[in-house]
What does this fold into?
Amino acid sequence: MKILGIETSCDETAAAVVEDGTKILSNIVASSQEMHAKTGGIIPEQAARQQVKSITSVIDQALDTKQKKIDAIAVTVGPGLIGSLLVGVETAKTLSYLWKKPIVPINHLVGHLYANWLEGSTPEFPALGLVVSGGHTDMVLMKNHGNIKWIGGTRDDAAGEAFDKTARLLGLGYPGGPAIAAQAAKFEVRNPKPELNLFPRPLINEDNFDFSFSGLKTAVLNYINHQSSVISHRRLAAEVQEAIVDVLVTKSVKAVQKYKPKSFLLGGGVAANNRLRERFQEEFVSKKLQATFHVPAVKFCTDNASVIASAAHFNYRPVDWKKIVANPQLTITD
Ligand code: KG4
Ligand code: ZN
It folds into this structure.
């Protein structure tokens, strides 16, 4: 089955065709990131306007390569920015009606986990999943496709948000994650195996799978205000990255030890972080965890539509197009 996926939840306009949930026939992503880089963050109204302009051509390009014939349409219905979501949702509904194709509504966060099914890997159930994106940090237990239980998440800022906000404090660009990672990498080239423990690791030793990242920006701000001359911004970037990575990895290892899943799935924009990927790999080996660690290729971590088409294949529940509505507040278990 070939599914056309459409994704417009944040600042990307994306369309992809995926066969049988795993084989990517096309994957087009247009981003208005450069525009947002100038303003230091996303202006929702502008993002949506840009998406209205590019959606038709992005879908055209996705359908142009290889096979034009599709069997169904999948669309992100939430969570995300309402104006942005509406562009994808209304376009998908229109196409479903015109082309008489079934339409499957998809949760963006679930989509992030399905990046792990693309390109040949088939994670085994039960699986533990950690979604780390710009707006969300959620740990879930997946007993099977369509059977997702939330076991923990952030109490305040998301992991990606922590990267973005601290990057802003350090005068680095938007999006903050890649900017912090680049500065940290420069620091680490000169300082192999540095001790990085300047910033707090909230909730790291607590017996739950919750996270809290809002204290990090306060800690960074305090540091900058009081002793900026002592430590370089590169080192601070490495410290920020390590604090976030440390908490995510430590709590994930605890979750694997408790739930003993067959696989562990990382997903979301922050999963593109090299240090995070490296630390996960290392810990799974050194702690001799039985679960197989899965992390998508970098281009499938950040927002794209192939993951939406994949999720729809494995959770194939078409809905009458008239009943499909965008829901900015959708949670990972809705
Ligand atoms: O999943 P995503 O593309 O969009 C949302 O659903 O939010 O995630 C975007 C987030 C941003 O906060 C961005 O700073 C972060 O992912 N990100 C990274 C990296 N690449 C993107 N964070 C850390 N390291 C990276 N290399
Ligand atoms: Zn995302």
